Every structure is written in C-alpha cells, then in structure tokens.
Amino acid sequence: MANTSADSVLGLTDQRLVAALQCDGRLTAEGAARVLSLSPATMRRHLNALTADGTVRVVVSPVARPRDGGSAGALFLRIKVLRGKLDTIVSALAARDDIPFIDVTTVGDEIFAVARTEPGSRDPLVFRRLPATQAVTSLESATVLHVFRLASEWRHAVLTPAECTALIPADSAPRAMPAHSPGPYGVDADPVEQSLIDALAPDARLPATALAARTGHPETTVRRRLAQLTAEGRLVTQVLIDPRRLGLPIEAKLLLHVAPDHLAAAGRALADHPAVHSAFATTGPSNLHAAAYFPDLAALYAFLSRDLVGLGITQIETALVGRTAKRTPPLGPTHSK
Q1: Are 103 and 324 in contact (CB under 8 A)?
Q2: Which of 11, 117, 230, 300 is the most exposed place for a label (fewest CB within 10 A)?
Q3: Average pLDDT, rounded, for the chain
Q4: What is the mean predicted confidence (pLDDT) over 284-300?
Q5: pLDDT band with cut points at 50, 70 and 90 for residue 168
C-alpha cells in the first residue's frame, strides 16, 4: 500500500501501478489486475490509497506533441538572480499562466522555467520585464525547435515491454497532435469535447457518470466522445507524482552542445533512454536540452560518462534540481476554495 510519508519510496506493487497508469491514465483496477497478475480487489485498494492523499494524480497533459515534432511555442528560460531575491522572482513567475514549469537548481540563485509564447515573437517577459528587474543578474532563453520527448511520455521502468503493450488502450492512436492546435491542451475540439477535456484536466480519471453530471451531457454521449478522443489519440494524460516516491531523488537538467549531423540521432537516443523524461532541440549554443531522473549520483555519473558516448556531444553542462516550484497542473493535492 502507499506509504504515508511524503518522501518515502513506494513499494514495488505501487510503483508498477504508477507505471501502468502512465500507459493508460484511465486504467481500471480490473484492467491493471489482468496485466499485473494481482486481484482486482488488491489493485483497487492500492489505487485508492495512492490517489486519496494526492500521492498520484492523473491529469490531462497541458502540453501535447505536435504531429511533426515541431514546437507549439515554448521558451526555455535560465534566470540567475540575487540570492536574497530568489523566492520573490519564483513567486512572480509562478503567478503567471504562461509559465507552466519552474525549477530551482541546487546552486541557490538559478531558476529554470518554461514559458509559452508565439514562435518567433519578442516575448515581453523575456525582452522587457525580466531584464528590467534589478534582482535578475542574467537571463538566457532558448526556443524549442523540435520535441523528442515530453514529460507525459515518460514511463517508470518497472514494467516489461509486454506489460506496457498490454496496458496501452487497444483502440488508441499514436499520441501526436496537429502541428497547430488552438485548444488550451493542444486539442482541436468541438464544444462538447472541449467541455469534457476541461472537466478532466485536473482529474483525468473521473468516471463517465461524474463527467455527465459536471458537463450536463448525456452519459451515452460522454462515453461515446471519450472513446472517440481516446481512439484518435487526442486525450493525452499525465501522471503527476513526486519522483522521490519512485526512488528517483536526483533530477538533472542537461544542456548539450551537439554537432549538427548528430543532433537528430542524439535527440532520439535521449528520448529512448529510460531515465530521460524530456528532450528538445533548441536554439542557442546548447542545442539539445534534456531532463532526467536518477536513483543516485552514481547513476547520473554513469549516464554522463557511458550512455552519452558516441552521440556527437561536444560539451555538457549539468544542473541539479533542488526543488520544483511549479508544475501545471500542480503537483500534489488540490484544495477547493
């Protein structure tokens, strides 16, 4: 069962259930039981324990992969601030709807953030507001050019390939979105579908009966539209959990310089690595950005010294995440006002 300590490592059964939810966010206890070879009653107890206290949340992903791998519009920001002003800047950034992700590194005066923006635009946050803030000592920005892996696509490596295949909904298409999608979650949806997606955004496991009550649509319509969204790969879910609960307390940001003729292959190799939860080709001297989870520093060293060999990487800068300041949707239980 799920442990009560906020940072204790979950048992193997719970970790496998988390990985199963990463394959199918709306997985039932019965479906998990068939693949993980445990009884439905056992799976239901574990699932209820994990979700009741917010240890695990399944949400609609706020970012969807464009079909061509291109960017829907995002900037990576690296901000250095005066040490006494770190919390002030973090709070100001966290209050912005266009900043979905904020990490503070172990250096103590450095922030990594993602900003949603229009491709090629002179974003006022980057070009005016942050540079004009005296607390900011330096600012670097890089535009996402190509998506190799999104956080919603990362899978905790505790299942066999056969188990993963069995858990993916049989009628689901590859989870790729149109290159330019107008919806807030990257989904080009009609009003009925959008109302379902909005209702599912903070809790993608809501049953059809609850969705019907919240949206006012007939339950038969809700079930039919959910099946359609799933079949077309347009309902992208993401499991939110503190990686420390999975035995992965080390998160590293990697800024890589890669020779142009190796960039695509290096990006694909990173996306295929079980530790890497996101990887993007970007503008700037560090033309490949990635982030990865590790059980300890020895595993990080092995990754840097062994797994990255032969990928055409000429320079690596590694930054350790000290704390996660913002995830959208937020990491942890929600509280209604």
Answers
A1: yes
A2: 11
A3: 87
A4: 97
A5: confident
